[in-house]
Amino acid sequence: MQDRHISRRAMLIGAGATAAWAASPARALLQQVAEIPLPADVAALPGRMTVEEKAGQLTLMAAAWAGGAAVSLNPAGAAGSFDQQLADVRAGRLTGVFNGNGTAMAKAMQTAAMRQGRLKIPLLFAADIIHGFRTVFPMPLAEAASFDPELARRTARAAGTEAAAAGIDWTFAPMVDIARDQRWGRGVEGAGEDVLLGRIMADARVRGFQGTRGLAAPDAVASCAKHFAAYGAAEAGLDYNTVDVSERTLREVYFPPFEAAFAAGSPTTMASFNELSGIPATANEWLLTQVLRREWGFGGLVVSDYTGDEELIAHGFAADAREATKLAFMAGVDMSMQSGFYLKHLPTLVAAGEVPMARVDEAVRRVLALKVALGLFDDPFRRIDPRREKTQIRTRAHLDLAREAGVRSIVMLKNDGGLLPLPRAGKRIALIGPFARGQHDLIGPWNVYGTDAEAVDLLTGMQAAVADRTAITVVDGSGIDAPLPGGIQAAVAAAQAADVVVLAIGETQRMSGEAQSRTAIVVPPAQMALAEAVAATGKPVVVLLRNGRALALEGAVLAAPAILVTWFLGSQMGPAIADVLFGRESPSARLPVSFPHATGQQPYHYAHKTTGRPNPPGAPQEYKTHYQEVPNDALFPFGHGLTYGRIAYAGLETGGGTLAAGGTLTVRATVTNSGTRAADEVVQLYVQDVTASITRPVRELKAFRRVRVPAGASQVVEFTLRRSDLTFIGRDLKPIVEPGRFRLWIAPSAQAEGVAGEFTLA
Ligand code: BGC
Fold first, then answer.
1. Running DSSP on this structure, what letter comes out for residue 183?
2. Could you give the C-alpha distances from 307 to 78, 86, 88, 310, in angstroms and in order?
3. Ligand 1: does its nearest atom lie under 6 Å from the Cβ of 514?
C-alpha cells in the first residue's frame, strides 16, 4: 500500500498546501487530479477493463435505496430497485451513486463492489451538500450576505464533516453561478450578483468542504464547482433557459468564481444544463476542453448535470441517445449523471471507431485518480463508519455554528427611529404572519438530508429570548398565497392589543431553488393585504422577510419602520432571528444582491454600465436613460445593511493619488461609530475606470473588510490596491490594465457615497 501514498502537494487539493503553491497563479494550480500519480495497480486497471467496465466507471446514478433521499427527490429518475443497483455494482456498471442514505446503504454497496466486483474498484458516493447535511446552515446566498468568507469556510467544513461521517465522498457544491436576474430561483444556491464576492465565497467553500489535511482525510469531501457555465444568465430568469452572453462577459463575470474554485483545489466541475450561445454547455467543446483544459490546465473530472447529456436531444442538438453520448463525451464530459447513456452507448461508439479508446481511458483515469485522491483505494470504507455517523452529526458545536451563521446572515434594511432591537421585557408583542410559527420553510430549498422538523422556528426562538413568553401573541393572519378566513381580523385585533408587531412574511422555500422562477419578485398579494391591515392599526411594525432571492418591496412592507431580511437560515432559524431582534447581537450582514424597486428592472446588478445618455442625478429627463415608473437604481443596493451602531465614513486618504507601475496604492478611510452599541461594519472599496478601451461598470467592488467598531470609537480602515485589481478583459479577450483616471469610493454600499476620491494609474 505504500506506493499508494500520495504526497500532500501532489494531490494538492487542499489549496495552498504549501505557500509557494498558494502563491502561484491559478493556472498552475489547476493540475489536481491529473497530477496525482496513480499507484501501479490502479494505473494498470484500464488495461484489464472491458469497454463496458470503463463505461461503468463513467456512469453515476441516483441511489435506489428504498425510501432514500434520492428516491424521494427524483422518484422518476431513481434507477430501479436497490437489488438491481447492487447487481450493477457487482457487474462493474456503476462508478457510484448520489444522494443515497447513510452508512448502511454505503456499506452494502461498497461491500458488493469490493467482494463481488471483478476488479474491486471502490464506489464513489456523491451528494448535494449545498448548505449543510443534517445540521443546516443558512442558504448560500444568505451566508454570502455575511461578507465573511471565514464563516463560509467553517460552515462548509462542518457540512463536509457531517457528510463524510455518513459515507459521502463528493459534494455537488459549491454552486458558484453569478446570478443577476432575481426572477431565477437558483440564485439562492450561490453568492449573488458580484464577481469578487462570488470568487471569495467559492474559494472559502471549496477549502471548507475539503479541509486542510488532503482529500484522503476521512472527514474531507471533494468539491464540485457548478454549473459550468453561465447557468445564472438564463434568459428572462427562467430556469434551464437559453443563455447568450459575449465571451468577454463570460470571462469577466461568469468564469472567475470557477477559476477561484479550481485554484482552491476543487477537483471536479459540473457541466450546466443551459445552452451557451447556441451550443449546450454539456456538448460545448470550446468551454469544456479548449477553455477549461487547454487554457486553464484543469486536470480534474467533468460530470454532467442530472441527465444533461440526454437533454441534448430536447435542446435540438443531438438526434438521438447515441449521438448525445458522443457529443457530450467528445466535448469533454467525463462522467454521465443519471441518463445511463454512457453505459449504453460508449461501447458501440468505440467499436464503430467514433469515439477513440484513448478518450475513454483519459476519462477513466480521471475517475480513478479522484478515487485515489479520496483515499478510497487505500480504504474503501474510510467514510463509512456508523459510529461517526451517530456522533458527528448535529453536534452541539455544529448547531451553535448554525446559530452564529444565521445571526451573521441577517440583513437589516431599515431601522427608523431605532425601533430595533426590541426590549426583552415590558412590551406586548403581536407575532403575525404565515411564517410566525411551525416546522416549515426554515431550512431552505436545497437540502437533501436536513428537515424542517429538526429546525427551530421563529416563535420558539422568540419565546426563549423574552423574559415572559406570554408577552407574545401569535396569529397567522394569512396563508402564504391565499387569505385565511377571519385571518386579517384576528391579526388586527392582536396588533391593537400589542405594543409592537413582528410581521413574518415572504416566500416559501418552494418559491426559490431549482425550476422555481418567478415573474413578480414580490411578497404574495394575500400577505400584502395582511401587511396593509396591520399597518393601518398604527402600531410600529417590524417586518421579518423570509426569502430566497431579492424582493421588490412596496406598500406597507416598505413603509414599515424596521425590516430584517431573514432568508432561510437553517437549523437555528428562530434563535438566530431572536438574537438580532432582541439585541443579543447586532445585525452585520450586507445584501449580496440588489433589491430593486420593481421586478421589471430585472436583470439588475449594481455593476452596470453608464449608457451614452445617463440620467443626471435627480428627476428623470427626456431622452435620458430612465424608466417611466421607478428609478433606475436599486431600492436597497448591493452591499447595503445597517447595524445597531451609528456609522459614518470620513477622512479618505488616497496615498498620493497615483498607482505607479509595479507599485501599490494604499487607501484609507475612518469609520466612526457614534452610536451606543458596538457594530461590525462591512467596509467596501469600489472603483470606476473612467475611460477605457472597453466600457467599464459604474462601480466595481475591489475589496471589503468586516471591522468591529466599538460604541463611540473610530477605526481607520486600509486597503491596498494593486495593478492587477484594475484588470479587465480587453478587445483581444485577454486581461489588460490601462493607465488613466479612476474614481474610488470607500462606502457602506454600492450606491452610498461614503468617502469618494480619485487616483491615477500610471
Ligand atoms: C441540479 C444539480 C444537482 C443535481 C443532482 C440537478 O437537477 O441542477 O445542481 O447537483 O441535480 O442532484
1. T
2. 12, 21, 19, 5
3. yes
Q: Which residue has the cell 454552486?
A: 175
Identify the residue whose cell numbers are 472567475: 256
What's the CA gap between 317 and 757, in Å, rounded?
51
3-state secondary structure 588-622: CCCCCCCECCCHHHCCCCCCCCCCCCECCCCCCCC
Cell of 581: 431582534
CA 417 to chain centre: 34
Nearest alpha-carbon partner for 556 in 488, 459, 631: 488
In short, whether 306's Cβ falls inside 6 Å of ligand 1 is yes
How far is ligand 1, taken at its centre, from the CA of residue 206, in Å?
18
Q: Which band of pLDDT confidence, cut at 50, 70 and 90, is reported for residue 249?
A: very high
Q: What is the pLDDT of residues 1-35, one digit of tens each?
A: 233 332 222 222 222 223 333 333 444 444 556 67
For the question of residue 732 being annotated catalytic, the response is no
**E runs forming strands in 1-111:** 59-62, 96-98
Residues 498/502/503/506 CA torsion (nearest 10 deg): -170
From 306, 310, 339, the mutation candidate for ligand 1 (largest count of ligand atoms within 8 A of CB) is 306
Ligand 1 pocket member 186 (CB < 6 A): no
Mutational pocket test of ligand 1: of 72, 74, 172, the residue with most ligand atoms within 8 Å of the beta carbon: 172
Is 128's C-beta closer than 6 angstroms to any atom of ligand 1? yes
- 601 phi and psi, to 5 degrees? -75, -10
Q: 177: Cβ below 6 Å to ligand 1? A: no
Sheet holding 714-722, edge to edge: 647-653, 664-673, 714-722
Place of cell 426583552: 424
Supply the pLDDT for residue 70: 62
CB-CB contact of 403 with 579 (8 Å): yes
User: Which residue type occupies 257?
Assistant: P
- Matching residue, cell 426590541: 422
Tell me: pLDDT of 697 over 70.
yes
Q: How far is CA 440 from CA 564, 571, 629, in A?
A: 19, 11, 36
Interatomic CA distance for residues 285 and 160, integer angstroms = 32
Question: Which pLDDT score, from 0 to 100, does residue 498 have?
Answer: 98
d(CA 377, CA 476): 55
Atom number of ligand 1 nearest to Cα 227: 9
- Rg of the Cα trace of the chain? 26
pLDDT at 9: 26
Catalytic residue, candidates 88, 194, 305, 441: 305
Length of the chain: 762
The position carrying cell 467559492 is 202
Q: What is the pLDDT of residues 583-617, one digit of tens each?
A: 999 999 999 999 999 999 999 999 999 999 999 99
What domains are there in the chain, each with its CATH number?
Answer: 3-12+64-389 (3.20.20.300), 407-601 (3.40.50.1700), 645-761 (2.60.40.10)
Helix (H, G, I), strand (E, B) or coil at 157: helix
